[in-house]
Amino acid sequence: MRIKIKIKERQNWKSRNGNLPCNSVQGLALVIWVLVGGFGNLGEAAVVITPTQEVVMSGSGLNQVISDGGAVTVGETLTGYTHLPGNFYEISVSFRILGDTTQTDPNKRFMLSGDYRVFLRHGSGLMTPDTVGSYLLENVGQEYVFPQLGYWDSGGMDITLEDSAAHSIQGYRSEVTGDHMTEVTGVLDGIWRPKQAMVPLGQGDPNGVWDLVFEDAILGGQGNLQSWSITLKAVPEPSSASLWIAGTVGLLALSRRRKRSD
Predict the structure, then answer these.
(1) What homologous superfamily is domain 54-235 in, according to CATH?
(2) Strands 157-162 and 188-192: what pairing?
(3) According to the model, what pLDDT value does residue 101 have?
(4) Domain ranges, ordered by start, for the chain
(5) Residues 6+ apart with CB under 8 A from 147
(6) pLDDT digit string (tens) for 22-64?
(7) What is the phi/psi pair of residue 35, to 5°?
(8) Count of H helices and E strands in the chain?
(9) 89-145 per-position pLDDT tens digit
(10) Which of 38, 81, 95, 180 has its CA 20 to 30 A from that of 205?
C-alpha cells in the first residue's frame, strides 16, 4: 500500500525577524512518501528534516600578537555543509585576548579593552559582493565614558557573544561593577550580546568564508589573541519543525494502527 501525505506551508509565513518573507520555503510542498510492504512493515520516508546540527570553526594556542594600532584576521572557509532550505543559523563567537607579556616595552605589555573593534563577516568568497558583516564590539564603553576611547580595563577578555544574551558587551562595566567608571579587575568573562546583531550572517547557505577581524584601533597597549571560535547551530524554521513533528506523529500512529490490525 502507498500512502501520500502532502502538506503545504502557509503563504504568509515570515522569517524570525518578522520583516523578511522567507521565499525559500513559501509555498513549499513537503511530500512524504511512505512505502509499506506486507503486513505492518513501515517503510522509509523519502523526505526527512534532520535534527539540529552544529558546525564549529576555531583556533587555539595561537599567541598571535595584535600590534598596537594594527589588526589580525582569523577564520576558515566552510565547504560541504548541507543547507536545508528554510533553516537559519544561530551564531556564537568566543575569543580570548590578553596583554602581550612578551613585550619588553612596559607600555605594550597590557591590552586596553576600549582599544578594540571586532568584526565578523561571511560571504561565498573573500570580500565578494554577497559578503555581510557585523561589529561584535567597537571601543567598548565609548558611549558611556570617553567618546572614541572607551573603557581602559587592562585585564583581558575571555568572552562569548550571542544575540540572545541579556546584556550588551558595549556597557559591560555597569553589569560587573555597578557603574561605568569603576574598572574591572582581572579577565572579563561571561556571555554578552554583541553591538550589532549577527542574524544577517545566519540567513541562507553557511558555506563560504567566515572571518573575524580583531583591530587595535587606538594607540597604547598591545594584545595577544589566544583563541577564537565561531559556532553555527542550524535551527529549522518553526513551520518546518511543525511539519517534521506532524509527519513523525502521523507515521507512528500509522505504524501502531497497522500493528493492531495484525
Answers:
(1) Galactose-binding domain-like (2.60.120.260)
(2) parallel
(3) 81
(4) 2-49+238-261, 54-235
(5) none
(6) 333 333 333 332 333 333 333 333 222 244 578 899 999 999 9
(7) -105, 120
(8) 2, 13
(9) 899 999 999 998 887 877 777 889 999 999 999 998 888 899 999 999 999 999 999
(10) 95
- Would you tell me how many other CB atoms lie within 10 Å of the CB of residue 81? 14
Q: What DSSP line would sit under 172-205, residue for residue?
A: HHHHHTSSSSSPPPS-EEEEEB-SS-SGGGGBS-
- Round to whole Å and give the CA distance between 210 and 19: 25
Q: What is the largest CA-CA distance in the chain?
A: 83
- Tens digits of per-residue pLDDT, 143-200? 999 877 899 999 999 999 999 999 999 999 999 999 999 999 999 999 999 999 999 9
> Cα separation of 25 and 7, whole Å?
12
- Tell me the pTM: 0.71
Place of cell 600578537: 65
Q: Do residues 141 and 171 lie in contact, with contact meaning Cβ atoms separated by under 8 Å?
A: yes
Where are the extended beta strands (E) located within 109-169? 116-123, 132-138, 157-162
106 Cβ partners below 8 Å, 6+ apart? none
| Extended strands (E) in the chain | 2-8, 29-37, 41-42, 54-59, 64-66, 71-78, 88-99, 116-123, 132-138, 157-162, 188-192, 208-216, 223-235
Provide the grid cell at 187.
Answer: 579577565
- Name which of 147, 123, 144 is nearest 133 in CA terms: 123
Question: Which single residue is written with the C-alpha cell 562595566?
Answer: 173
